[in-house]
Write a structure and sequence with these properties.
By secondary structure, the chain is mainly β. The radius of gyration is 24 Å and the shape is globular. The chain starts with a helix and ends with a strand. Helices cover about 10% and strands about 35% of the residues.
Length: about 450
């Protein structure tokens, strides 16, 4: 146990030292050079050998040069197949290694060939790609301290800053340490090497809401219940009769039949079961399509006014769900951080979690570390999973497009191109491969 704790101290110091450089670990810069060309090398075999990341963000570069474009990055503990020998050692004493399926990693930028390295033992908790949440997440119960390792005293931590109440973080390890006042602390380790006291956090409870997969049996139109107190109705000769109450966020595939009774409009859910148009959020098949909706091209159609998303392959809808958008909803000022940017956008990067984004930009007045299933858009905003609320279908946040975690994972996996195995992010998505995101009123 003492050896594991020592390793964790070493790892935390390494992560903090590599990631911070005078910044918050959440603000690591991944600069790009757009002019370099990648040398042609064989794709490393899937079964290895491997290299592993020992840093918060280990860059994968297009070519073996320090200023070369970054195409993706690894996170501490991750392993990726590599070439058996280094391609070269120019400006990289440890060597430039081609990795699978493309790109080069310099060992000096936070990577190792030693698969027994202490970081790999301490950072054994890697993101889960087959679960709604890639890590175990926690929320702070009050304003609390952030700790970093004290480089001058093994087994000790010192205060690095504050984190506000209800902030969120992923937990990837635990440690017993002494603070600068001599108090023994039971600490939870964050992915960036910082710590919080376990007494000051509680497990995050995320929404279990999920959208609808569309196929031959389930097609548009569908309705979602986004208000409480909504009921189903029966329509007979005597008029409309209120029936059982529907559940909040209930999904209602519709038959397509529509009736008007008195001043109200109704959609048919099933035999003698109807819902009032005014009570639900309706998603219909588009009557016209943009020019890019051809040949199975994957794209997302997002309506700000209804708070809905439809995933299309060409002109075929394959999935629909509720989303939360900026609090200002239809605000016309595109520079307003509380409005969601409209237009024909592109996915320019995919992150398992947002290691390198501004942690203040995802929720209102709190910090959110490791926001899951993040798609970076050409507008500079994001599509991501939100584990801190359940108000999907209702405007909510600073401007990003937010989905329930299971839906965010579904969209993240479905969108093109795929993040290679072992990579934490793909940050150089070309237009021809990119999923298009059509954000409209």
């Amino acid at each position: 146990m003492r050896r594991v704790r020592k390793h964790l101290w070493q790892v935390a110091w390494l992560l903090f030292g590599v990631a911070s450089c005078g910044k918050s670990p959440g603000d690591v810069s991944l600069s790009r050079n757009e002019d370099d060309d990648a040398p042609l090398v064989p794709v490393p075999a899937e079964d290895g050998p491997f290299l592993a990341s020992t840093a918060h963000a280990t860059p994968i570069r297009k070519s073996p040069e320090r200023g070369a474009k970054i195409t993706g990055y690894l996170h501490a503990g991750a392993r990726v197949a590599r070439a058996a020998e280094a391609f070269g050692r120019d400006d990289c004493e440890g060597g430039w290694y081609p990795v699978r399926p493309e790109g080069f990693v310099c060992l000096d930028e936070g990577a190792t060939l030693d698969l027994e390295h202490p970081t790999l033992a301490a950072m054994a908790i890697q993101p889960l790609l087959d679960a709604p949440m890639p890590y175990t997440y926690a929320r702070t119960k009050a304003n609390t301290d952030l700790f970093e390792v004290d480089s001058e005293h093994e087994g000790r931590v010192r205060t690095a800053g504050k984190i506000s109440s209800q902030s969120g973080l992923a937990v990837v390890g635990s440690w017993q340490a002494t603070d600068s006042a001599g108090n023994q602390r039971s600490l939870a380790m964050m992915t960036n090497g910082w710590f919080v006291d376990t007494a000051e956090i509680e497990r995050a409870k995320h929404s279990d809401f999920q959208g609808l997969t569309l196929d031959d049996k389930t097609q548009l139109p569908v309705a979602f219940v986004v208000k409480r107190g909504v009921a189903a109705w029966g329509l007979g000769n005597a008029g409309a009769e209120r029936k059982d109450e529907l559940e909040y966020q209930q999904k209602l595939p519709l038959s397509g039949r529509f009736r008007t009774v008195g001043d109200d409009e109704y959609w048919e859910v099933g035999e003698d079961i109807w819902v009032r148009h005014q009570d639900v959020t309706l998603v219909r098949l588009r009557e016209s399509f943009p020019g890019f909706a051809t040949s199975g091209r994957r794209w997302l159609d997002i309506s700000i006014s209804t708070g809905t998303l439809v995933a299309y392959e060409g002109r075929r809808p394959v999935f629909t769900t509720l989303v939360s958008i900026g609090k200002d909803r239809l605000g016309e000022g595109l520079l307003d951080p509380l409005a969601t940017t409209r237009g024909e956008l592109r996915v320019v990067a995919k992150h398992v979690t947002a290691l390198n984004a501004n942690v203040e930009g995802f929720a209102n007045r709190v910090d959110m570390y490791d926001t899951p299933w993040t798609l970076e858009l050409s507008s500079g905003q994001f599509i991501h999973g939100a584990y801190w609320h359940s108000r999907f279908g209702i405007e909510h946040g600073p401007g990003n497009i937010q989905l329930a975690p299971a839906d965010a994972r579904h969209v993240w996996l479905w969108s093109t191109p795929n993040v290679p195995e072992g990579w934490h992010a793909l940050v150089d998505i070309q237009d021809a491969e990119a999923t298009i995101v059509n954000v409209r009123k």
